[in-house]
């Protein structure tokens, strides 16, 4: 498959502000690299605080105009038109995501279905009734009711591990409610957000409704989080950075939602379908080369099956084809950046120093893939829950297997973490499934499956995994503000 892409024909890919391509005020650029090869893809304008301010100004101007007043049916029709435009260029988007962050083309090619589901669900929300009439006991003839109106300007700081999908968690509800948007994609993977802005504008989304400013987190991201004219900021990324985003957002007490790190438990009981659980546990951790916030990276296995089961999981990992992301047969691509490769390699050293046993993996991939950022899927045994490898988020294909003896111990180990994004269990006992899912301190739990999501179903985190809802009708409410009206009818 060709590595050329029509969207990368410019010498420098600019920022997108107020419906126009513009260079960064500083004139600075950064390199965008193909993680499968380490080769330069393009140069991108490096946005800073001044560019963020220009984007927020454009977003506020668009919000104060006719955009927020668009009729519900017109808004729904526009979203259907945008979806049609995305589908027309979907192959370009999928290829760009593969080149930019390394997800295999076999994976990004499946995103069409998810994009359809997202746009159709949020378009349906655009025409839902909003507001409530309240009974009141005030003497006289008073009517009391509430309105739900678009919140305003939304700043979205999106991660590098899946930007094509992640950005839609902000784009779709903004279009459905009448908010305007400033996207700040990560420097490691900014391309799909820039192309998406072009597609939306060509489909009829007015200038200023979507603005895209790639740039460093400490400058562009911090400026967006602290901006006094941003009404809501949403962030997906590490817990440490999330804390700084929350602190910066206090400038004007803007609304915040943060989806942060995870060290999610995947619990396997002896009565489970072990063949299905082994494949599920492997993909629950190794999918997207382990670069998933809710990846099941702590495998808790009932002691009576511990040895045989982790061998099954390791075999499932070895069977996955690691290769160039453009090869249609590749199942696992590279890590998204050189920095992430170094991070994962360091955790291999940490695991060895702590005494973990490598059942499989633990190596960089050499040969024809040596210039890319590839590692082998890794299963670690003889792990205790107090080891760093069991407590810290690696964000790579590294699975730490921990034995347990009783249901109560499994629950205790699962909850013995600072995170709380997701968790899963495998068992044929329906009563046990209900008991354990009820006790897991997570925002999302799976039983006899892993990683199943749908844009119409809410997902959220707890504790150090953040707060705020994505998906489902609750998500729409985060883009609306409620206003109570009292009307004297006399």
UniProtKB/TrEMBL annotation:
GO molecular function, one term: aldehyde dehydrogenase [NAD(P)+] activity
Protein name: Aldehyde dehydrogenase (NAD+)
Organism phylogeny: Bacteria, Pseudomonadati, Pseudomonadota, Gammaproteobacteria, Nevskiales
Native species: Panacagrimonas perspica
Keyword field: Oxidoreductase
Pfam family membership, one: Aldedh
Catalytic residues as annotated in Swiss-Prot or TrEMBL: 259
Family membership: Belongs to the aldehyde dehydrogenase family.
InterPro entries xrefs: Ald_DH/histidinol_DH, Ald_DH_C, Ald_DH_CS_GLU, Ald_DH_N, Aldehyde_DH_dom
Domain Aldehyde dehydrogenase positions: 21-485
